């Protein structure tokens, strides 16, 4: 490259290494940077992003590769580059400040802070020079540098005001009087119905994010209240997301979100967490609606994960970039000229009709709105409708499309691929473990369960301690960064689902271990709920809580869900009470806008509407209980958990020690809402009760 690298060249993070040849004298987040800022009496310039962030790349090219900007940054500031995926707690703290100041946030996140890390000015993307009413980074840097020298009190006062605002908004105590009941579930449904896009599915206008937890809430709402409208909303959304350009029709997997209401034009990055949550949503959609397309979608997402995102060690990589060769979407879009070279005349004509292709292209440059001559593959209707329109037998059309996709995928593999961020994050892996375990047992895919088991074993062996502590990130053999709330919540969820799929007691045992560690080090005794960071972590100015269910559910929502389930399956009221108290801490937030907390409402549904727990006490050398589970697994039963009492699990609680086989036969105990029926050895009778 000809340019000397900065210290980021030593980092494992792909995002940080992408900036290693900037002329900016970047520091990674850490004491070295803070000490330099204190010693030289300079403010911190903190830039936060992630490797697959398109506008992060734009800001780098415009500003951080620019010698003039670099000179200003190096002279007047201590520049710190942060990978938000490695430091979710740091990102969450400064994002909170950004939203408090501006009413919105996003990445790249640009923060000016005192040497003790208190923010006094926060924004998102800044062009190098002022345009469109947005201040330029150059002018902003020079202005703040001058203020730091001549009117520092103004900046310090701003920092204190921001911290005061964050302290006031981080935590709503139950004493506010808000309470939760079944009514909140109905209100959330009504809000979703009001936001629902009747034509294209999803909620609200552009941009549209998948937010699968909203669909998971609706599947459960349908289950509880036999509400057909809830299921129609799920079906419409799943169908149009799958048909749209937000889905990769050749390689499987979903892009991060759609820039329009039609699910057509995505931002092309692929995030591991999206794949995990969408596996859940499409599996549940298939269970309830029996659309083969939804089962195929799950299979294709899993194939994508196995092909592109699975590390040799068994963990899953974080994300795949939107850009390749410096251009967003280049890898995924097609000119008609290239399609003609690859396909037969018949295949070409079918591709044009099915995927809505044109000579001028359907892919618009987002900034200019101009057509590019390139096409995103998307469908307006499912195959069965298209077959009728094209007057082709459905089987023949499916056969043609299979051949077209295989040819185009082989051709696409010759292109320069978008970079994959190969760091392995504990929280996102926990989510995918949960999803693969659920989909694997539901759809009868043992290989997926084995893949989930291998990923779980990787976390247990590499990213956890015998005391129950989790670490956040693994990269190139290096384990680093203390786990935050999400790491514990998602890993516990993953282990609970993996236990249901395998009945291997060690996974339930470790779920309990991590839950107890989470309670010990993250619990807020005064106001309930869990802090994002542990009580021993001190590198940000304020411990915060996150309740809102955004692109993925919040750690508090998932923790509440886990603890209610764990408490009931282990007969541990103390665990369930932590889950309930978490929901109580969230109550003021949920009461104001239930639609923003749909995963918390999944936990609330269990709390107010009850659940079922099936305890299996097998007789020696009798595995007939597997016949029962084989019948249960394909069914959508979101309020049912089960546990096999064996040498590992019976030691997890006093309650389980009392469950014994009757008369030497495999015995079943079915409990509903804290009341257990008579023990029985008739698994077919149990099945009738459950279904």
Task: Summarize the helices and strands and which ones pair or pack.
Elements: H1 14-17, E1 27-28, H2 31-40, E2 44-49, H3 54-64, H4 67-76, E3 78-83, H5 88-102, E4 109-113, E5 119-123, H6 137-150, H7 152-169, H8 182-195, H9 212-225, H10 228-243, E6 257-258, E7 266-267, E8 270-271, H11 272-289, H12 292-309, E9 317-320, E10 323-324, E11 327-328, H13 336-342, H14 345-354, H15 383-390, H16 394-412, E12 420-425, H17 426-443, H18 446-462, E13 471-475, E14 478-482, H19 485-502, H20 505-522, H21 555-570, H22 573-592, H23 598-609, E15 612-617, H24 625-632, E16 640-644, H25 654-657, E17 667-672, E18 675-676, H26 683-690
Parallel strand pairs: 1-3, 2-3, 15-16
Antiparallel strand pairs: 2-4, 4-5, 6-7, 8-9, 9-12, 10-11, 12-13, 13-14, 15-17, 17-18
Provide mean pLDDT, rounded.
93
- Biggest β-sheet, characterized? 5 strands, mixed
| Spans where pLDDT lies below 50 across 5 or more residues | none
User: According to CATH, what is the topology of the domain at 7-169?
Assistant: Glutaredoxin
- Order of strands, widest sheet: 1-3-2-4-5
Q: Counting H and I runs of at least 4 residues, what is the number of helices?
A: 26
Query: Shape, please?
Result: globular
Query: Termini distance?
Result: 65 Å
Give the fraction of residues assigned to helices. 40-55%
Task: Supply Rg.
Answer: 26 Å
What structural category arises from helix and sheet content?
Answer: alpha+beta
